[in-house]
Structures are given as C-alpha cells and as structure tokens.
Amino acid sequence: MLKVFTKSLGCPKNLVDTEHVLGSIGTFEAVDELENAQIVFINTCAFIQSAVEESVESIVEIATQANDDTFIIVCGCLVGRYGIKELSKEVPEVHLWLETKDIDDWGSITAAAIQEYFNIRLETQKTQLFNYKNKSIVIPEHGRKVSTDPSYAWLKIGEGCKHNCAFCTIPSIRGAYRSTNKEILIPEARKIVESGVKELVLVAQDVTAWGSDNNDIDLRPLLDGLFSLDGLERLRLMYLYPAGMTDSLLQYLKDAGEKFMPYFDIPLQHAHQDILSKMGRPFAQNPQIAVDKIRKYFPEGALRTTFIVGFPGETEEHFQRLYNFVEETRFHQMGVFAYEKEDGTVAAKMPNQVEQQIKEERKDILMELQSEISEEILEQYLGEKMSIIIDREHDEWPGLYVGRTWFQAPDVDGITYVSAPPEENIKPGMIVEADITETQQYDLVALI
Predict the structure, then answer these.
(1) Would you tell me how many other CB atoms lie within 10 Å of the CB of residue 126?
(2) Which of 220, 227, 212, 214 is nearest to 249 (CA)?
(3) Burial 296-320 (b: 16+ CB within 10 A, else e)
(4) 252 burial type by CB count under 10 A (0-12 exposed, 13-18 middle, 19+ buried)
(5) For residues 153 and 170, is the Cβ–Cβ distance under 8 A?
(6) What is the C-alpha separation between 219 and 252, in angstroms, rounded?
(7) Contact predicate 275/311, CB 8 Å
(8) Euclidean distance between CA atoms 154 and 293, whole angstroms
(9) pLDDT tens across 152-183, in order?
(10) Global pTM?
C-alpha cells in the first residue's frame, strides 16, 4: 500500500481539491512523517505574498527532507500564479507540477504519473482510460477522500471568480467563475452524508454566484437537492457576496427549516463608499444595506465578515467610518487583514500607499474592538442549553471535547469546549445538548 504525506495550505477550497486528488490514488496509508512517505502531495496558496512565501518555504523544506526516491507532487495557486517553468528551476526535486488550468484533470494526471513512476497499477473497482504522455493509462475513479473531522465536510460548488477586485489575484490564478453542476454536487454530498457526516459547509470564491453561468437564477436549485438529503442535519454557507443576498434567496432560506444554519459569512472588505469604489467591489455602496436586509429576515442570525485596512488612499476618516460601522453592526465573527501590495493587481499601482506601521495599527485597533464585541455577544448565551456538534476529542484532557454551536464555523471561528461524564459515551460527529457554563472572548465552555 502506498504511503502518502499531504500538506494542504490556504483555504478550504484547496483542501477539497486535495481530497479529490487523493481519491484518485485509491487505497493508501496516510503518514505524518516525511521519512515514511513514498508520495508527497503539496497544495499551495498564493493569494497574498505571505502565502506565497509560506508555500515556497514548505516546498523547499519538504523537498530537502524527503527521501531521494519520494515522488513529490505540487499543485495549487502558486503554480497558477508563477507557472511550472519558473518554479521547476527553483525546486527541481518536484516530480509533478499540476497547473490550475488543468484542475478538472488533476486526479487523472496524478494517478497516471504515480503508476508510471512506481511501475504499478492502482487497485480500483472502477477505471477509465486517460491519455498521459501520449499513452493510454488505466486510472482509478475513487471520488474523494474527506480528511476533515467526522462531524463536517466542505462542499466546493464552484471554481474561479467573476469579480475583478483591485486587490485580488484570484481571477488571474484560477480563471473565470465556473459553477459545478448540481448533478455532480448532490451525489457527492449524498455520499459524504451517508458516511456519517452531519454538517456540510458550502464554499466557493463566491457561493452566491453559483448557477449564474448555467442559466440558474441563484442557489435554490442546488439547495433543494441538498436539503432533501437524509442524514444531513446542518447546512452552512460561506463566502456570500452582499449583492447575492436577494430578498427571494433570503426568504427561501428563512423557510428552509432547521437544517439551515442562520449564519452569514459576507466579506464586506470595507465600510466607506470611496474605498469600496477604489477596491472595485461589485457592490460599491453602503454595506449597511446588506446587513439590514439579512437582519430583516434573520433578526437573530449571526453575521461574519472580513475587512481590509490600509488599502491605498485610506485616510483616518475612512478608517473611522469603518470603525464606527463595526461598533454599530456588532458582528458575531470578524477577521481583519492589513492590505498587501500584490504584483499584477490594479491596487498595486495606485497612489497613496499606506505605511505598513499604520496598517498594522489599524488592524490591531479593529481587532481589539471586535474582541470586546465578541465577548459581549457570547455572554448572552451563558446559562443556555445549546445544540453542539462534536468535532473531536481534546488532545490533552480526557472527557473534554471540541465542538461548535450553530454560529461557529469550522477552522475560522471560535469553538465550544464540551465536558461530559464517561457514561454519556460522546463520539466525534454527534450533536449533543449542553449547558453553557462559561463564556470567553471567542470561545464557549459547556457541560452535558
């Protein structure tokens, strides 16, 4: 059995791509130590310069430490941004580079390359022929190897982006927006749920853009199929653009029932119209409109967002408007990024670039405000009995589990620590009822 070491950097969309490629290998043993690996698979991020640096450092470190005969595969945004020709000069130890333009064939290319390198035939019950280096090679069709906690899985519903924000490299790396057909997504989701996963989290560069390239009005045809899945108990939507939050979609979600988590992850990026216009956001207007619309249908819903501070031309007045907006809106969850100047973007050539120290100060000021807001919001749940999905056992404390309430998304938000006596027989993947006994800045503590 092949032994595989995996490193997936960046966003959950990358992780789903990794899981699909691993599915093409068939049966394998996942290993945590490089010295035990026959195959290394690295999925990179290159959205911003810090991510580029992390990706390059990871590749070089792994290539240096891996055994001489280890088959090394690298894919993702780094390859899409800089190309195979340039990267292969820097790291010649990599055997296979997968370009983003070939993303639909990553699994086929990987399986064929592995078979040729190891001179084996991957075991599978279902096969297809794939042309690799002018040869027809039999490769497996295994679908996807979900690698997240047993409680949830990401469902990537689209590739690329149709927007052209001035600060963003994604359209140049991943291409135009392409919806994944619901005839593919619903069977994939069904298989995941049948394995015992109770929560699906929909992701794409813009989830609300799904169907816009296939004559579908919005998400509803896809959601109809997902909500009908037996065994699915939670459906969460991430990366929702404000313009996509229409009255018709919000009314649909309001009527969807308990499976829908009333949690809205909307990357607003700023609150001042001048900055939004410079950013080239597809809704260069008052973001309060989107907030008010959501709260009209979901007055008790949770809002999550991200902001960029220090965008070129951002003055103290612009930042103060953003600060006031955060203070007034009271987001359940919020992330803040200091603007990074990215080569090839419109914003990189803009005048009035903000000094790094000022950007970092504004980021700290905004996050300090948010920590206070988060603490105050969480205090409201003290003493309540809440449904909590159990992600995993705590690494150090027996009888303690890590879980999430309805307003906590995996990886990006706070968590809920759940304590339970042994007779409760708690297992990852279960949904339990627990009393909130303590609240912190971003986390909760609960007792069964």
Answers:
(1) 8
(2) 220
(3) ebbeebbbbbbbbbbbbebeeebbe
(4) middle
(5) no
(6) 10
(7) yes
(8) 27
(9) 999 999 999 989 899 999 999 999 999 999 99
(10) 0.94
